[in-house]
Amino acid sequence: xxxxxxxxxxxxxxxxxxxxxxxxxxxxxxxxxxxxxxxxxxxxxxxxxxxxxxxxxxxxxxxxxxxxxxxxxxxxxxxxxxxxxxxxxxxxxxxxxxxxxxxxxxxxxxxxxxxxxxxxxxxxxxxxxxxxxxxxxxxxxxxxxxxxxxxxxxxxxxxxxxxxxxxxxxxxxxxxxxxxxxxxxxxxxxxxxxxxxxxxxxxxxxxxxxxxxxxxxxxxxxxxxxxxxxxxxxxxxxxxxxxxxxxxxxxxxxxxxxxxxxxxxxxxxxxxxxxxxxxxxxxxxxxxxxxxxxxxxxxxxxxxxxxxxxxxxxxxxxxxxxxxxxxxxxxxxxxxxxxxxxxxxxxxxxxxxx
Length: 354
Ligand code: NAD
Fold this sequence. Notes:
This protein is α/β, with parallel strands linked by helices. It folds into two domains: 3-66 and 77-126, 3-Layer(aba) Sandwich (Rossmann fold); 148-287 and 318-345, NAD(P)-binding Rossmann-like Domain (Rossmann fold, 3-Layer(aba) Sandwich). The chain contains twelve helices and twelve strands. The strands form two sheets. Strands 1, 2, 3, 4, 5 and 6 form a six-stranded mixed sheet that branches. The chain has a six-stranded parallel sheet with strand order 9-8-7-10-11-12, sandwiched between helices. α6 (207-217) links the parallel β8 (199-203) and β9 (220-221). α2 (93-104) packs across α3 and α4 (148-167) crosses α9 (290-300). The structure holds nicotinamide-adenine-dinucleotide (NAD). Nicotinamide-adenine-dinucleotide (NAD) binds at residues 115-116, 147-148, 151, 180-186, 203-206, 209, 224, 238-240, 260-262, 288, 291.
């Protein structure tokens, strides 16, 4: 594998491979940038078909964390870890303790937390072998714990900002929203949207997750194959990345895309196709920063949940600034956000500005 030649490689500071024979741990940590502070980003556990796919993912995700942390105004750089394995079968406390030792070996240059496939309980195992971990349990009223609910809050506020900008509506009553993925974030997002009168459509590959949202919030169920093409005001991708690509974009019928998933655009230029189609795209790493804001407060210690929520309330204003700049400069929202993030990182030449 020609690491430095990969499309996903973006002058990353460090990429390290970790292996532990006893537990079978196979992990990769990528530190994209420590310009603004130690690199913070979650640990994803996923059954990648091979090392190349895991490396491509960790490179892309860690760069996204640099952008996300920079745009959220956090004194953290960007990093990410991936563990190659099936989280439904291959998890043991010992595996995460071994992962913790791997994180610890970087001496604080990378701080981990949960992500897709890992949980608060897994991070508790990690915390037995390193202090460079966040997203642990939090007492009521304290900052921290599972970042999912805080991510959902930021996405909810971000959707409202996009609806205000794109549809000229000041509330969500009667606004139709299709949510792809009713997991930790998607379920809570549906709860918040339903409370404000949004009309929900939902899809998940887990039928029980769909049933729950339909029962509790009166959502309409559609199949995972159909959800992206729903004729709705807002499409909210809350499952996995790269859902906005040359195959899916021609079929989109939403006016706004605003969701939690990381790396929603398969490539930067897909943002131009969305713009040409008149679809307002809320850059993923701006709208989904609620979780990392919570993780950052927890890691610094002593913070309150109220302070976390106050910071998350900054997300809609940042999005509106991006929407306005994109409109006045006739650029895509993702290019504007990338440029703003790279300026904050001291990297002045966006590779995919459009
Ligand atoms: P999760 O694993 O709890 O939920 C994901 C859901 O998507 C699951 O219910 C899964 O069954 C479903 N899904 C998978 N493939 C699907 C498909 N093809 N169609 C429909 N549904 C599908 O994860 P989460 O914590 O809710 O995170 C959701 C997304 O948001 C992920 O992309 C994650 O990286 C991103 N994100 C999460 C956080 C956080 O704090 N949890 C923060 C930032 C970004």
